[in-house]
Amino acid sequence: LIHFYKRAEQNMKAVTMNRMMTRVPQLMMQTRKCSNLVNTHLENNGQIAVITLNNPSKLNALTEPMGDALISKVEEVKKMEDVRAAIVTGAGKAFSAGGDLDWLLARHRDTPESNIRIMQEFYQKFLVLRSLPMPVIAAINGPAVGAGLCLAMGGADIRVASKTARMGVTFTKLGLHPGMAATHFLPSIVGPQIAADLLLTGRLVKAEEALSLGLVARLGDCAVTVAMDLAKDICLSGPVSVRTLVQTLRDKQNVGLQEAYRVEATAQSICYPTKDLAEGVKALQEKRSPVFENK
Question: What is the pTM of this model?
């Protein structure tokens, strides 16, 4: 009987080990997939870090795994002492199409309390770019929509765009209150009246209008090339003066930022369970205009 139990125990250990060995490659594959969602490389003799959102098949939609990957890449860039400027851009034809629609529907089914917490965490995953000690330039190479544009506004000190790019804080077109500090950053960038126009209508603007509004600083045929030229110019300035200036400018923006996170997340938690939110997401998936019912 003792031998029987020992054999049974050995068999159980073997089964457990096999399961673990099967799961390890799966976990490694998931980790590699997550890490590949954001890529980095260096330019200009290691002085410029280029951070690329890398999910072009989904138009670089912002997801929690991508946010985790971005946090990891930002930590890597922080340790690169020679880097004097950073560029953030998107792989493929889009900068970022904003929040993942399936994830938004998951918020529709979640509780308000949970959504308030999740949304604030989500905002800060992507605005982690603000923790980089060097200037960050957003190279808007294509559509920057919703949270995608918010990433460019709150995560970058300067925005440049390709001449074909389109931008918009399109939250209300989904039946959702703006988030990721859109109501905090946009008024300071384009002024309160233009910000109200863009936020309330959720309309898309072409690159030329974005330039005229001050939403972007420069335009060119290739956004990354424009950003690279700007970053190289910054690299010619005194490194200590640039780092301290970046901190001064961001410190001014940081006043009220945490409160903006809380207020926007709370407002979004009110919108998420509504039928209008579900209709807005469904209409976007079906490529039609939504029919809102104030419910």
Answer: 0.87
